[in-house]
Design brief:
About 45% of the residues lie in helices and about 15% in strands. It has helices at about 15-35, 40-50, 50-75, 100-110, 130-135, 145-160, 190-195, 240-245, 245-260; strands at about 75-80, 95, 115-120, 140, 165-170, 200-205, 225-230. The protein has a seven-stranded mixed β-sheet, with helices on both faces. It is globular.
Length: about 270
């Protein structure tokens, strides 16, 4: 018996069909996970009342497993460089360029310890998703409300003090430009978490994630992603002029790494 293909696969090439199927699998994975994990979220909520760190580590283990599956079915391979630059045994502020939703998947599956991303506050309106984000230490930033933004910074400082690293995208949104070297301006206030807590800043350069999804919506295409961790620095140890504009300073470090990657000058780790 012949089975008709879904209408959205009509008149597609074999390559496009494969890309669309990847998108469907990823979408079903995300939706299925969020729907069927409601009971598990309740269990984690109860655990969090008695052992916050255990709850966070268990939630992170589950999220990493789901993210690794999504990367695998998407056909994403990842090369990690400079992981030896990440200070061992202490929380840091990761500062990265932002090209894709897949930046977050690559970040969570690469960094070894507790980690939380700073996300826009609009993500809180999505049930289950926002619960999982909170469980893995995400912070929700209101970019239009200065007072609420300061509260988020204070939350980030408290997380760092108890051993949780934070990852921020100082461009403020995904950069949709074609040139990976043309980063949006970094918001200077975005590095306050490191400035106030004294934790090291680790610049992170990511290439290849936009090629997975954003450059050819709604298809998901196999791609090679490179993530490089730069040399850490302490804000208060920078020269006065660079300390005054630490966002611009960090942006230059990331662009330098992206330039090396573009010209094949970076060393490989994985």
């Amino acid at each position: 018996m012949l089975v008709k293909a879904p209408f959205f696969l009509y008149n597609r090439t074999d390559s496009e069909v494969k890309k669309m199927i990847r998108f469907i699998i990823v979408a079903l994975t995300v939706i299925g996970f969020l729907v069927f994990s409601a009971g598990y979220l309740h269990k984690m909520k109860k655990l969090g009342r008695t052992d916050q760190e255990k709850m966070e580590r268990e939630s992170l283990r589950v999220v990493k497993k789901v993210f690794r599956f999504i990367l695998k079915v998407s056909g994403v391979s990842v090369t990690v460089k400079g992981i030896e630059n990440v200070p061992a045994g202490q929380p840091v502020l990761y500062v990265g360029n932002h090209r894709s939703y897949f930046d977050i998947l690559v970040g969570y599956t690469t960094v070894p310890d507790l980690l939380g991303f700073v996300a826009k506050k609009e993500m809180k309106k999505y049930p289950f998703l926002s619960d999982w984000m909170a469980n893995v230490n995400c912070l929700f930033l209101d970019r239009k409300n200065l007072k609420e933004g300061l509260k988020t910074i204070l939350e980030g400082i408290e997380k760092v003090k108890r051993g949780v690293s934070i990852w921020i995208f100082p461009e403020g949104t995904r950069n949709r430009g074609d040139n990976i070297l043309e980063l949006l301006p970094f918001k200077e206030g975005s590095l306050k978490i490191a400035e106030k807590s004294g934790c090291p800043v680790v610049p992170v350069a990511i290439t290849g994630t936009a090629e997975v999804f954003e450059k050819h919506l709604p298809f998901i295409k196999p791609a090679h992603v490179t993530i490089e961790f730069g040399e850490p620095f302490i804000i208060k140890e920078l020269p006065p002029e660079e300390r005054k504009f630490v966002g611009a300073y960090t942006r230059k470090q990331i662009i330098r790494m992206l330039e090396k990657e573009q010209h094949g000058l970076s060393g490989n780790q994985n």
